Amino acid sequence: MDEFDTSATNTWCPGCGNFAILRSFKDVLNNLNKEEVKKEDIAITTGIGCHGKIFDYLDVSGFYSIHGRAAATATGIKIGNPDLEVISFEGDGDAYNEGISHLVHAARRNIDITVLVHDNKIYALTTGQFTPTTPIGYKGKSTPKGNIEPPLNPIEFMIASKASFVARGFAGDRKHLKNLIHKSIKHKGFSIINILQPTVAFQNTWKYFRERVYKLQETKHDPKNKIQAIKKSKENEQKIPIGIFYKKQRKTYQQAINEQTTNKKQNIHKVIENLK
Amino acid sequence: MKDICILVGGKAGEGVRASGEVIGRALNKAGYYVYIRDDYPSLIEGGHNFSQVHASVEETFSQRKEIDLIGAFDERTVFEHRDEFKSDSILVVNSNKVEVDSELREEVKDVVGLPISDWRKEVGGPEIIENTGFAAAITSLISLDPDYLNEVFRQEYGDKAGINISLAEKTIGECKDRCKELFELDEVDEGGKALLSGNQSILLGAVSAGLDFYVAYPMTPATSILHFAAQNQEELGLDVMQPENEIAVINIALGASFAGKKSMVATSGGGYDLMQETISLAGMSETPILLIEAQRPGPSTGVPTYTSQADLKYVLEAGHGEFPHIVIAPGDVRQAFYLTGKALNHAWRYQTPVTVLVDKHLSESLKNTEIDPDKIEETEPKKLPKEQNNRLEHNKETYNRYFLTEDGVSPLKFPGNDVIVKNSSYEHLENGLTTEKPIEVEKMQEKRLKKTQKIKKQLRNEQRVWSKETGSDTSVITWGSTKGAVIEATKEIEDPISVIQPLYMWPFPIKELKNKLSNKKTVISVEANSTAQLTSLIKEKTEINIDNTILKYNSRPFYPKELAKQIMEVI
Predict the structure, then answer these.
(1) Same domain flag for B357 and B209
(2) Predicted TM-score (pTM) of this structure
(3) Integer Cα distance of B258 and B515 in angstroms
(4) Entry's Pfam families (chain A) (predicted)?
(5) Does the beta-carbon distance from B213 to A80 stay under 8 Å?
(6) Does the model's ipTM exceed the 0.95 cut?
């Protein structure tokens, strides 16, 4: 029993990549605790789908939002209380289909939240339809003759959306993932990790990914180099890099607001006087 | 004379609206009651915009169509409003731009041609300030002390007021000599009332009740709340945000409410459509949120810059599932101020969505009134009993976000205060964790039902119906902004008929309406929609049939005289 466990029964399929994401996140929370980030100062949001169940498995504050909107909810929480560490869990359907606009604009405005996308490349809870990250040819109930839509490249897309921290993790490498999540939370500004999450019931990709992933940190990759990062993001067939693709420190949304509003002192009577 | 109707008109981009507002503000400072309606099509430059200013020694709730004094920036204004001129009207034109035919000169009392463009060039200002010239000419023709006008210029334009004051002085000096006869408004004591739009009033009411955060995506006619909030952000102590779309708007607002910030969003029908799923989320997660729906004519894009009252039944049914949703429909700027304050308080007291339903005519028209922020009390959300709170803060007990109470309302705490707070869109247990067990599902649905009952019971103490009782057995029933034209119309009718206006659409004031309607022989309902939505709501809730309906759905508001005529036909 971990201090972040809840009384909820876990209903993910045995062998699902979500377990590794949950475990890694709890490890990060324990580490943060040691760094004096109190458990109560964490707030999570979740979308709808298998990933969303993580809301029930974590004893931290949170808002179980609706499909696609978790990044918007997280934005509101951060603005409402900038002292909270806000982490938004989303599925690939949530993040890249239903709620893609929120992701783009949260990245662009550099709101200081962390988005963790459980990318299993499938709508699992609705029994296996294709998502924006599903490969061409995938046969599911809604695509019996095979998926014909080319997938989105989340890493390239998020770099183009001006995200200031873009990474890919793999549920099959928990140590690496834990480290990545920790860094993304510590990053001041918008951070996103697209986590490769094998989903045993529909596409058992454990072996596929294990054979292909390699760590960017073990190469000469420089995360400050945007062009190199985009080049690396296109490598996703024979070899799949994981780690931080791109990272740049820039002004957060909150910092920009604080610079603009220096004299916030309520005087409604003065405003009314001006209308007289 | 007791009142005067002024119209200024010209192209979009010429500062017509500002001209009307300056005239209205000067009259307000002098102590007159003022009502201003702006009419503008959906374009940026060109077209035909006009501003109707009604000033009176008595309180006025509506614009009037019959014009006493016209300021025509261009020829189209003369052409468009020719039907509204009277034999004793005075027409002021910029003689550098407008020629008036001799036929029209015969129709009105006087045509005052002023070379405003020449004078503007003399004082050396940009073309836009010619609107100031018109404001000066108009106010001088009603013998208003120029000090009031100059004060408005200083207030509105600050350091740049000098050029406006110079042009005004020039205009006023020349104007009176060129006019046969001036209007004389009866004298009144100096005012002290605020002249503001429904939208400004809404924001100020919400701020008075403790609003922290305003989020919106631009959509006419709600947009000016966003402008007013952004311009006065610091003095209103507000966070203001304009995100990517209305879905983001309400989800961001809900996130902030969850974090403890009192949040409000505003939009029109189309944006409200986009918010539906999250209104349901607010109902389920019991997250307080205040929404403003400023109606415009639909369906769909409709007639974007004009007015309508066709979203009543739709707003009452907003969001899927069953949850309490309070809907309030103020009818004038004063009601908008106090009822929006109440609306925000209701949202936080009952932890549920509340919608204030207005329309373009109320949102954007200006009226002067007295408002006092100190009269709006701020409601704090239900607190945990002290002992329990202590135990919670010392980690000896966990906080149940959805703790079951007698009235269904749970004590509310926020994340980041030494507690774990779990809000959920899923059906949940008291602690916020997901459940699908029938007994738990039923319990939570009953919790929300209890809140519904509690709201119905507690709001019985609120004034949920406004009325002007005259003892007559004839009454007009109306709602929202149409109340203004109805009040003014009754002034035109010799029999002193009563006016009834329900303020709360949910919970609906069934008993109050039954009482008020039971002793009336003739009831006429007046609404700006084509299906008599309030009338059918009354039928559904009270079983009272109202046979006489006066409906207008051409996207323009009612005018008192035409309405009075229609009412007279029924009586």
Answers:
(1) yes
(2) 0.97
(3) 41
(4) PFO_beta_C, TPP_enzyme_C
(5) yes
(6) yes
